[in-house]
């Protein structure tokens, strides 16, 4: 099991992304490890998505390093040879949702206050093509398009209805259910499951691998724009105001 632990809200900072990638690599290289459940040890939050402070007021070099780390974590989770189950035990916007979408199966706590989705448009930013492709592969083109254009965050019941999560279970049963799903998936021979997974996911993975540097350049150019920086600053202010 891998538990995201970066209070208060599990923002995906460069440091957390780097630790996450190293832990995944260790598991991937351990032949005895055939599956991983990804969850959070922060109450009510799976992950608040990419750490916005990493994308605000920093240098081009920093944006480059940060985006490479974001790409890396997606590539590792999406193309993992292990069975990956997301036990979504709290809200999961944007980058948090991407982590869950990249797993093989998603189980969410059935709490209507928890929400999940790719809400980038609400921040005035655009989910890159590989976020979009991952989303389309889970919910289909129409639902993904509407949800992305509106930057929707879906409540747990709504997310289940749309197919964004596979199952809802009472919060106290979440880990038990995740373990049961893992056992079901691990009952199959690894090679057949792994080859099938690769067949389904390879075109999307290959697309980023082929355009990785271009994608970094696009990100750095986009995020460095003063209008985008202003949108991000306003969003952070809104988060702080909402609190007080
Ligand atoms: C032409 C095409 C080119 C394309 C190029 C690419 C373009 C860029 C693509 C970038 C993709 C971005 C992906 C992302 O993930 S962006 C992040 C999106 N995340 C969010 O919108 C979530 C925001 N947070 C919340 O909604 C709430 O915090 C949450 C529901 C998660 C929890 O609520 P709660 O009430 O429990 O906690 P607070 O809101 O009080 O938060 C506590 C403190 O944490 C700070 N915070 C929250 N989220 C973030 C974050 N994502 N990054 C950094 N900091 C965050 C919040 O401000 C509070 O701080 P303070 O205690 O200091 O006030």
TrEMBL record:
Subcellular location(s) per record: Mitochondrion matrix
Gene3D superfamilies listed in its UniProt record: 2-enoyl-CoA Hydratase, Chain A, domain 1, 6.10.250.170
GO MF terms, alphabetically ordered: delta(3)-delta(2)-enoyl-CoA isomerase activity
Pfam families found in the cross-reference section: ECH_1
GO biological process: fatty acid beta-oxidation
Keywords for this protein: Acetylation, Fatty acid metabolism, Isomerase, Lipid metabolism, Mitochondrion, Transit peptide
Pathway(s) this gene product operates in, as recorded in its UniProt entry: Lipid metabolism; fatty acid beta-oxidation
EC top class, as a word: isomerase
GO cellular component assignments: mitochondrial matrix
EC number: 5.3.3.8
Reaction equation(s) it catalyzes: (3Z)-dodecenoyl-CoA = (2E)-dodecenoyl-CoA; (2E)-tetradecenoyl-CoA = (3Z)-tetradecenoyl-CoA; (3Z)-decenoyl-CoA = (2E)-decenoyl-CoA; (3Z)-hexenoyl-CoA = (2E)-hexenoyl-CoA
Domain of life per record: Eukaryota
Quaternary structure (record): Homotrimer.
Family classification: Belongs to the enoyl-CoA hydratase/isomerase family.
PANTHER family linked to this entry: ENOYL-COA DELTA ISOMERASE 1, MITOCHONDRIAL, ENOYL-COA HYDRATASE-RELATED
Biological role: Key enzyme of fatty acid beta-oxidation. Able to isomerize both 3-cis (3Z) and 3-trans (3E) double bonds into the 2-trans (2E) form in a range of enoyl-CoA species, with a preference for (3Z)-enoyl-CoAs over (3E)-enoyl-CoAs. The catalytic efficiency of this enzyme is not affected by the fatty acyl chain length.
Official protein name in the record: Enoyl-CoA delta isomerase 1, mitochondrial
Organism of origin: Zosterops lateralis melanops
